[in-house]
Design a protein that fits this description.
mainly beta, 1 helix, 4% helix
């Protein structure tokens, strides 16, 4: 990222400083499957994990353009586990968005 410092008298630095922060942290879950099935005017999303670490919930989002997302709901996860877990979310609003 790049930033420019501005003091309390609105004086800015002559040059911008650029920093790169490597992000190598993996997701706290190992996803093994994900599926979406349209059922009439709704869609059923199902997914499974092989393990989870310090996971609180899954946020389910929808986008009509692939850039702007709206959260539809949350599904509680199992926290920390090495067990296989399955999840499901039903999007009942599908009929309104096509």
């Amino acid at each position: 990222f790049t930033y420019t410092a501005t003091d309390n008298q609105d004086a800015t630095s002559a040059t911008a400083a650029t920093f790169t922060i490597p992000v190598a942290a993996p997701l706290p879950v190992v996803l093994v499957s994900f599926d979406a099935q349209r059922l009439g005017t709704s869609a059923t999303l199902t997914w499974a994990t092989a393990s989870e670490r310090n996971s609180d919930y899954f946020a389910v989002e929808r986008s009509l353009d692939g850039q702007t997302f709206v959260e539809l709901g949350q599904v509680a996860s199992h926290g920390t586990t090495q067990l296989h877990n399955s999840y499901q979310f039903v999007d009942a609003e599908l009929a309104r968005t096509g």
